[in-house]
């Protein structure tokens, strides 16, 4: 796809999102037909609409977001929605994860193999994560923005990836599939660039600079040119998404561009992630929240002092480990870029065999670099490109 085609397609994707953002909902949760829910299920009816669609036959019921059903979470006695307020949304995800850990949590190695050394190659105790979720629940009510327009229940597609968008030969969007895990949330929690379009971590993208290929592009080898063109593509997609959102979907751009809303959004996301042996990310995000506490509570009727605190030693230890984990994440991204696979393991059908061969070569090279049988077994057991259950 060329630059002009990419730009035109992104404009059409943003227009789809714009139309979704204009739909009014009475609560957060997921959409159901009224007659599909039993009388024991909580639901909020849709108010009569002015369109030709009879919205009264729909209601807002419990969330169908996948994380509410992942790994035995469907068996927890927790509040799945619908939620009348942003505070209830924020607290529910923390209570869900805490309840799961208390019922099913046990010491384990981190899912990300490169994290193992940061925990002394020992199994990680979930009790620490339970305590950080306690801290999250103490600050959750302070994360609700005061402005009403930032708490409006808003619907977004849960996985707006290229594989879920159907396009005609003339370049028109003819359909978007995979809506089954769609959830309505307050707009400040929905305000983000879809993961398949964002390019965070690169200074040019984060500062909204127009993408350009490097000045020495013509002198690069073919493989280097291929890597640079992929970086260029990712920068373009990020740039076009932000630009057209600013032009066509101002409510989203407004919420997405406010730093203190990004902090709230990030804390919610990290607190709601299934625990898989990472006792650092949530505490680190709480620390960052505390660092920006005056900004978060500025102009709002809330106490100046935060309800939680960490010692300087705890803060330093956590942030140093978090930096190591982020460096490991960056290293993994470089490997994915080399193979040609995204963070979820997706690869275009035309590139599958090439990606598979690159992964095989890389694995062989890494095995050859091991010096002991123990290192070889460890590498095979922790090879990152093995099958695993998706959580998004």
Features:
392 residues; three-stranded antiparallel β-sheet; two-stranded antiparallel sheet
In short:
The chain has helices spanning 3-21, 86-104, 126-139, 187-190, 203-206, 222-248, 250-256, 259-271, 281-291, 293-297, 312-339, 352-369, 373-381, and strands at 30-33, 44-45, 58-61, 153-156, 165-167, 173-176, 183-186.
Question: Explain this structure to me?
Answer:
This protein is mainly α. Helices cover 45% and strands 6% of the residues. The protein is built from 13 helices and seven strands. A three-stranded antiparallel sheet has the order 1-3-2, with no helix packed on it. Strands 4-7 form a two-stranded antiparallel sheet. Strands 5-6 form a two-stranded antiparallel sheet. β5 and β6 (173-176) form a beta hairpin. α1 (3-21) runs parallel beside α6, α6 crosses α7 and α8 packs antiparallel against α9. The longest helix has 28 residues, at 312-339. The radius of gyration is 22 Å and the shape is globular. The two termini are 27 Å apart.
Write the layout of secondary structure elements.
Layout: H1 3-21, E1 30-33, E2 44-45, E3 58-61, H2 86-104, H3 126-139, E4 153-156, E5 165-167, E6 173-176, E7 183-186, H4 187-190, H5 203-206, H6 222-248, H7 250-256, H8 259-271, H9 281-291, H10 293-297, H11 312-339, H12 352-369, H13 373-381
Antiparallel strand pairs: 1-3, 2-3, 4-7, 5-6
Helix pairs in contact: 1-6, 2-3, 6-7, 8-9, 9-11
Strand content: 5-15%
Spatial shape: globular
Give the uncertain stretches in residue-range form. none
User: CA-to-CA gap between the ends?
Assistant: 27 Å
Task: State the helicity in percent bands.
Answer: 40-55%
* Major sheet characteristics: 3 strands, antiparallel
H and E string: HEEEHHEEEEHHHHHHHHHH
Calculate Rg over CA atoms: 22 Å
Helical run tally: 13
Would you tell me the overall average pLDDT? 89
**Secondary-structure content class:** mainly alpha
- What is the strand arrangement across the widest sheet? 1-3-2
The count of strands amounts to: 7
